[in-house]
């Protein structure tokens, strides 16, 4: 059975950081290849794609640091042969920032690759209920969907719609870091 993984980067980052709860451990040391093989289990791992909002350089120290870290993450994902699909980030009048287009890209690509018969099982790492219609559509192609989430932010819509569920535990994630990691601010 062919397995493709669709990672909502913002959801994964926030969920993993909250679950690990240790600022000395950086996701820039995470072994995404081994993690993908873990998720696919005995299935044939075909591809993973990582979806995030593109940060821009803002000129201030914080913006530059966040931009540099995102570029390092994109570089790390490239070493694991995981393409990064970029959405946009917009600033709201209240000063908060929000991703736009990321969930749409995930949904479109899940459906596109299902239609092209490029996988048998989709593994969706996200907690965004907006993806329920995409999961429903993927299943009309006879594909299975495994929803992977975090206990603190489980989407009950995705749980109900998907064929199976995996809630990640801290021990699951810690297996994909080197024995000693350094704090790198991400």
UniProtKB/TrEMBL annotation:
Pfam families: NYN. One of its GO terms (molecular function) is RNA nuclease activity. It comes from the Bacteria. Residues 3-153 form the NYN domain. PANTHER family: SLR0650 PROTEIN (PTHR35458:SF8), SLR0755 PROTEIN (PTHR35458). This is NYN domain-containing protein. It comes from Candidatus Buchananbacteria bacterium RIFCSPHIGHO2_01_FULL_44_11.
